[in-house]
Amino acid sequence: MKSRIFGGVFVASCLCGFLYADIVTLNEAINKAGRQRMLSQRMTKDYSMIGMKINFGNPQEELKKSATLFSDTLMDLIKFAQVNDKPSHQALEEVKKLWDPLQKELLAKPSKEKAVATYEATNNLLKAAHKATNAIAATSKESTGEIINISGRQRMLSQRLASLYMLKVWQVDMDESELKKAMEQFTTAQTKLESFPKNTDEIKKGLTAVDKDFMFFKVLGMSQSKRYIPSLIARSSNKITGKMNEITKLYEAVQ
User: Is the pLDDT confidence value at 117 over 90?
Assistant: First the structure.
């Protein structure tokens, strides 16, 4: 009973910062579009955990909530872009074309035989969501537009690292160099964030905390040991994602 209660609390705490609301500002649109990238990878992670019958953090519930959030946010972004920017609107419509069939597959019973195809489909969704985020960010005339994009992408990379690790544990055929590549991308982006001249004390403190969690995550993720620790990877990735979500929101307010 305690584990079930903890699992429910864990999912709620991971998603509590991802609230449903109409998009009002451009910075908010950049943030939420960037969050879609993260959700694509979080759903891959959860799909693999469910397939392996790993119940830590209640991946079944997290997957359902992530899928609902992705759908609702996509509609909000399309509505926002319809009024504000045609290229962004077209990019978001491409995301929708990929998302509609993939959503059904992700919410169906996971299959190891279909895992590679699902992984490739979520990667295509990620690329489309990234393109849409960049299109929205390109309309910003503020220096914070780019930094919000970079900060938001860190959420995606933390979940991508976890999803790649889960596929490795599940022994799904995949290119393991992608894990190393994602590690390097996270490190490079973190350096850019830390050197941003408009960082507030609160942002600096948050980035320091993320660095500590990432070092632990990096050691676990790149270990050559065959003794896998998926529950710790899931926990660490969600901690980093949650903290980067807070930091990205703080960047929204930077002038």
Answer: yes
Place of tokens 């001249």: 197
- The gap from C-alpha 23 to its chain's centroid, in whole angstroms, comes to 19
What percentage of the chain exceeds 90 in pLDDT?
A: 73
- Whole-number Å distance between alpha carbons of 41 and 47: 10
99: nearest Cα among 67, 130, 51, 131: 67
What residue numbers bound the domain in which 222 lies?
Answer: 2-253
Please count the other Cβ atoms lying within 10 Å of the Cβ belonging to residue 110.
22
pLDDT tens for residues 85-94? Answer: 788 999 999 9
Question: How confident is residue 3, by pLDDT bands cut at 50, 70 and 90?
Answer: very low
Two tokens at 26? 């451009």
* Cα separation values, 230 from 48, 81, 163, 233, Å: 10, 38, 10, 5
The count of structural domains within the chain is 1
Amino acid at the residue 170: W
Phi, psi of 23 (to 5 degrees): -90, 125
